[in-house]
Amino acid sequence: MEELFRLSGSELLRRIRSREISSQEATRACLRRMKAVEGRVRAFRCILEEEALATAEAIDGAFSRGEDPGSLAGLPVALKDVLCLAGHPTTCGSRVLEKFIPPYDATVIRRLKEAGAVILGKTNMDEFAMGSSTENSAFEKTRNPWDLDRVPGGSSGGSAAAVAADMAPVSLGTDTGGSIRQPAAFCGVPGLKTTYGRVSRFGLVAFASSLDQIGPFGKTVEDLARTLSVIAGYDPRDSTSARVPVPDYASQLSAPLRSIRLGVPKEYFPAGLDSQIEGAVRAMLTRAEAMGARVEELSLPHTDFSIPTYYILATAEASSNLARYDGVRYGYRAEGAHVLGEMYRRSRSEGFGREVKRRIMLGTYVLSSGYYDAYYLKAQKVRTLLKADFDAAFEKVDLIVTPTTPSTAFRFGEKTEDPLQMYLSDIFTATINLVGIPALSLPCGIARDGLPIGAQIVGPAFSEPRLLGVAAALESEMDFRSHHRPKALDA
User: Fold this and answer.
1) Residue 210 has pLDDT above 70, yes or no
2) d(CA 455, CA 427)
3) For residues 83 and 86, what is the distance between their CA atoms, to the nearest angstrom?
4) Is 358 helix (H, G, I), strand (E, B) or coil?
5) Catalytic one among 8, 22, 80, 171?
6) Could you count the other beta carbons within 10 Å of the beta carbon of residue 29?
7) Whole-angstrom distance, CA of residue 91 vs CA of residue 11
8) By the 8 A CB rule, do 75 and 169 touch?
9) Between the CA of residue 421 and those of 36, 54, 449, what are the distances in Å?
10) End-to-end alpha-carbon separation of the chain, Å?
């Protein structure tokens, strides 16, 4: 019998819509896969089995009555546990919100439900999306399906691992400095960080409001395109949401690479970059040239300032956003505190993990009197320079190609004692969030240790149609998914 859980989201949708299989069959296949491997991967915070099966049954009923339940009807989807799902815990990987149950759905979840998607559960993550390995979760450590001794990346490690382990064909993550693209690269799946404002952030628990974006993981680029067509679009409940029409992304995936100009920034291929990663990305560029693309080197001169700029602005916004968790209105409250100041101090000290505390303190420092101009204001000015770099580059090229990460997935504990080394995991991705433009990580090769390598494709604002089209063409040419899959779960 065919293993339905191995099919892509788009393949499942076609078979469900043609009634070759039912939504219940697709959902049960994913749930059986979870029971077989979730104990080893630990990608999920909660699994909504009964609710998922009830939704699948309703979808099948609608089809049998000749109705169209939506463009994603019957598709099983997993959600990062930073997105509010009405009636179910939204922990953000933190003890502070361990018992928080939101009374409403995030806009992206409401749109998925309206399109007929089946919600499988919530996935594990670094606490409040602060981390690059999912080791900062207050609850468990998610493991990489390619090698269970290695991290899946972060902060959306659970969402990436769920797709890589075939427990869900599609999942949603969030990306503040690389938190979709980096785990996508580590787990060997495509992942898309969207243009700032392309997808509503209503119902997303904020880390850094000017940087956070929601985006999909999938088994194929087509999965990303179909999901994005549903979750994208203006939302009056999000003041940063853009009034830009939403195209049918999946219908635009067949565009040829002929005459596409691909820029290769020299700053993203520094001396010391792992030769296997550079080789895999450049081999993909060679294929792109053979398909008709033009490849040219360019410079993004302020790149060296991106990581310090990011960690000033992101921590400043985190300090502000996380001030609400004070033990008063909701979330964790320390027991036995009788004085207001003591309650604040103990609730936050006991509720937050070490990395979150570190970033709150850094952010509070750069916003404090006497340091605001020297750090925060200067970082905002450098952010403007970084944007100018990309604006100038996109006058010369259509898209930019870089490595997604400087290494393949590292081992557990390898970087937890050196925060700077952990932060440098996002060296190729964080600038994209500062500039607010879209980027996609695409599997492009396998290292000698058997771990996947990702290439990052970057476009100007709202260029997702071209970005997805080029990625789909390269995906078809390389056919990574047919030749490679994680085998750590086969035993």
Assistant:
1) yes
2) 14
3) 10
4) helix
5) 80
6) 22
7) 32
8) yes
9) 34, 45, 21
10) 20
1 pLDDT more than 50:
no
Name every residue whose Cβ is closer than 8 Å to that of residue 125 and which is 6 or more positions away in sequence. Answer: 80, 81, 82, 92, 93, 134, 137, 154, 155, 156, 157, 158, 159
- pLDDT per position as a tens digit, 268-303: 999 989 999 999 999 999 999 999 999 999 999 999
Report CA torsion sign: 96, 98, 102, 106: positive
Mean pLDDT for 160-170 is 98
* Active-site residue (options: 137, 159, 179, 425): 179
Alpha-carbon gap, residue 147 to 449, rounded angstroms: 10
329 — pLDDT class (breaks 50, 70, 90): confident
Question: Residue 360: helix, strand or coil by DSSP?
Answer: helix
**Helix axes 23-41 and 49-64, enclosed angle (nearest 10):** 160
Closest CA to 81 of 178, 157, 27: 157
Pair type for strands 294-298 and 261-265: parallel
- Burial per residue of 11-20, b for 16 or more beta-carbon CB atoms within 10 angstroms, e otherwise: bbbebbbeee
Is 155 marked active-site? yes
Question: pLDDT for 72-130, tens place per residue?
Answer: 999 999 999 999 999 999 999 999 999 999 999 999 999 999 999 999 999 999 999 99
Q: Residue 89 and residue 237: Cα distance in Å, rounded?
A: 22
How far is C-alpha 29 from the chain's CA centre?
Answer: 24
Exposure of 355 in the CB half-sphere (CA atoms within 13 A): 26
268-273's contacts with Cβ under 8 Å and 24+ in sequence apart are 268/300, 268/303, 268/402, 268/403, 268/428, 269/402, 269/403, 273/403, 273/406
Nearest to 201 by CA among 161, 242, 163: 242
Chain position carrying tokens 């296949």: 29
- Active site (annotated) includes residue 179: yes
Neighbours of 224 (CB within 10 A): 33
List helix spans (H) across 141-264: 157-164, 181-187, 221-231
Closest CA to 262 of 435, 105, 415, 458: 458
CA angle 471, 472, 478 (to 5 degrees): 85
**Lookup result for tokens 């920034």:** 265
Q: What is the pLDDT at residue 491?
A: 65
Superfamily per CATH, domain 4-262+400-483: Amidase signature (AS) domain (3.90.1300.10)
- Ordered by start, the domain boundaries in the chain are 4-262+400-483, 304-382
What distance in Å separates the CA atoms of residue 164 and residue 184, rounded to the nearest whole number?
A: 9
Candidates 71, 94, 132, 155; catalytic one? 155
